[in-house]
């Protein structure tokens, strides 16, 4: 066993069942089917999807029946695009909901100038690049949100993401240098790093002390190559199957797990693979990922 007992817990994101960016993917999959299959596949936690009830009482009850907990949920920040107060107001409501659900981390991604939700914008050619002014607004704003999270003993984890201003290893490093470790932590996402052409292991080693949440996803290199050569968008890349679950792509997870275990990582691992559920049966892939993670990490 690589990890200390109870140090790491395994969750899976509902995006494999129903896609938040493209609601037509998995439209017929219900919330109950989604969480039942998560439990059936052997997971302990989930992030929050668009079909999840927003009443903490109802959500708690549905999850408790299946032995699941909420690990976190995505929050879109617009710190480079609008007044801080607007993002902060929305963040407080999001924070309070997650706090009621017992989550300890809040996933934040800056969506100012993001192209991730645009169906026809080429992912690599049109990638946004922040100006000095935008970097300053982002860093200051995240610091403020991090302090709001701390009011509830929660941690802000920043999600670097394809199609946004924080996508590359250099951009992640810059964000970490501009922010206070006491206010802003990092979400480490293997799939987004590999997709961006980075080495996930190197990024992990560079920022280990800041990493408080982990998304485990894999990529299909052939599809990624096609995304680059054909100028596909992020959403087209997802539909084409650029992402898959750990053990089904090209990322060497054993070294990543070893590094996290050696650093005594505690918290959630969240399996996440945006795929079309009509092409990639969510339960089948959830089970595949669960087996692979057990084989490679002992979890």
From TrEMBL:
<keyword id="KW-0464">Manganese</keyword>
<dbReference type="InterPro" id="IPR013022">
    <property type="entry name" value="Xyl_isomerase-like_TIM-brl"/>
</dbReference>
<feature type="domain" description="Xylose isomerase-like TIM barrel">
    <location>
        <begin position="39"/>
        <end position="295"/>
    </location>
</feature>
<dbReference type="InterPro" id="IPR023952">
    <property type="entry name" value="IolE"/>
</dbReference>
<dbReference type="InterPro" id="IPR030823">
    <property type="entry name" value="IolE/MocC"/>
</dbReference>
<comment type="similarity">
    <text>Belongs to the IolE/MocC family.</text>
</comment>
<keyword id="KW-0456">Lyase</keyword>
<dbReference type="GO" id="GO:0050114">
    <property type="term" value="F:myo-inosose-2 dehydratase activity"/>
</dbReference>
<protein>
    <recommendedName>
        <fullName>Inosose dehydratase</fullName>
        <ecNumber>4.2.1.44</ecNumber>
    </recommendedName>
</protein>
<dbReference type="InterPro" id="IPR050312">
    <property type="entry name" value="IolE/XylAMocC-like"/>
</dbReference>
<dbReference type="Pfam" id="PF01261">
    <property type="entry name" value="AP_endonuc_2"/>
</dbReference>
<dbReference type="InterPro" id="IPR036237">
    <property type="entry name" value="Xyl_isomerase-like_sf"/>
</dbReference>
<keyword id="KW-0170">Cobalt</keyword>
<comment type="pathway">
    <text>Polyol metabolism; myo-inositol degradation into acetyl-CoA; acetyl-CoA from myo-inositol: step 2/7.</text>
</comment>
